[in-house]
Amino acid sequence: MPRPDLHRTDLHRTDLHRTDQHPTDPHDTRRRAFPAASEGDDSPHAANRSSTWHGRPLDRPGEDVEDQGLAFDLGTLVTRRRTFGALGTGAAAMVLAACGTGSEDSASGGTTSASDGGGDTASSGEEMPTETAGPYPGDGSNGADVLEISGVERSDITSSIDTDTTAEGTPITLTMTVTDLAEDGAAMTGAAVYVWHCDAEGEYSMYGDGLEDETYLRGVQVVGDDGTVTFTSIFPGCYSGRWPHIHFEVFPDIDSITDAGNAVLTSQLALPEDVSTDVYSSSLYDGSAQNVDAITLESDNVFSDGWDLQLATVTGDVDAGYQVSIDVPIDTSTEQEAPEQPGGEGPGGPGASDGGGAPPAGGAGEPPEGAPDMPSDGGSDQG
């Protein structure tokens, strides 16, 4: 809507501040310039002498502040008058969209990317289920403890910390978005995430035969301001009796990882069948193709009670590698509950038991003292 009083050529803007005209005179139809000169530069004409106003770029550098247009005025309202609350969020968003500022697009884009993991679990209010850590956690709850080793806080976990051994396999980049449902789904910034999984042959470092001194495919990352942690690793193999999976534990902070009992969540993520089948065509994954063909998510001892929240989103290909992502919503106001697993409780974290499977080649070696016995028929280890 045009504002004729502000564009009259026969009215000098200094008339808007005449002291001989009472401001409440109903016959005075002239409008006060916005914003007032006293709130910024010495006069509204300062816009003619600069391309910015209070550090903000002017959309129309050659014109006065009050002639910069609706988008500029709204920006001033946001920063100086804080009137979005009065307008209402929805109304303000509609006005911004009409002005073509792009602010709403940026905000929604950020939200979308943050919830693109294994489905929109954070917004649904459902917590990631607690699962067994299995008999090979390496967190001190079952013998070996990588969390006491200097250097465990790392993003690339393909190699052992103190040796030159590197696990071979199809590369993956794992991104986990960790949020706190007790804080309205806010990023769980500062939390520590410990990730571990088997190698291409289905064996676990620190436990497999001859792997007692290896620490590959284990590492810790601290959740950033955006709620994410990222690990560089390889696609895990599939051993008998278990669906392809990755273990993880979430701790309140990096200082609390020295005690596995401090974990606020112990769980596992599942990998998609089609991707697993493609990966296991490689000779590096000897035995995995046969093992994955012999099991389903429905028959897996961990995921059979439901896997919607735990099935990761995976993109990429065998040659270039894969990007694996998942949302990890946690309710820190409640205690994690040990899942019901066949075979009862055992070492290795909440719900650990001896019901799961054995690696496809070479077995898992001799577990450390206190670990559950491996069945002679390769029937279960719940790893």
TrEMBL record:
Residues 1-67, 101-146, 333-383 are annotated as: Disordered. Residues 101-127 have a biased composition (Low complexity). Residues 1-28 have a biased composition (Basic and acidic residues). Residues 343-365 have a biased composition (Gly residues). It comes from the Bacteria. It holds the Pfam family Dioxygenase_C. One of its GO terms (molecular function) is oxidoreductase activity, acting on single donors with incorporation of molecular oxygen, incorporation of two atoms of oxygen. Residues 162-241 form the Intradiol ring-cleavage dioxygenases domain. Keywords: Dioxygenase, Oxidoreductase. SUPFAM superfamilies: Aromatic compound dioxygenase. PANTHER family: INTRADIOL RING-CLEAVAGE DIOXYGENASES DOMAIN-CONTAINING PROTEIN-RELATED, PTHR34315. This is 3,4-dioxygenase subunit beta. It comes from Brachybacterium alimentarium.
